[in-house]
Amino acid sequence: MNHFQAAKAHFLQCHQHPINQLFHHITNLFAIAAIFCIFYDWRLTVLCVVLTQVFALSGHIFFEKNEPAFNKYPGIVILVSLLWSLENGFGLRQIFSKSPSFTENR
Question: Helix H segments across 1-106?
Fold first, then answer.
């Protein structure tokens, strides 16, 4: 198993609670917004960066009750997290896959 695969496995292990997963999808949206805000207003970039930490850490403190994956795999876990959110449609895949279809009740 290479370093990236090990980091991804550890990331998935640390993010089992659905609310923590939602918080991390929000965190990744703020991270992407921070990149665009650099060109608009640096204060918005700082706000986005602060909000990423608030959401990510509160998910671990209040719901997972574990350490963030960043502690074991600093740096690369940021890429793993963004890839994970992209693969899951920033949480939309989980929402739509768990909702009942309209044809089931007919």
Answer: 3-14, 18-37, 42-59, 76-87, 92-98
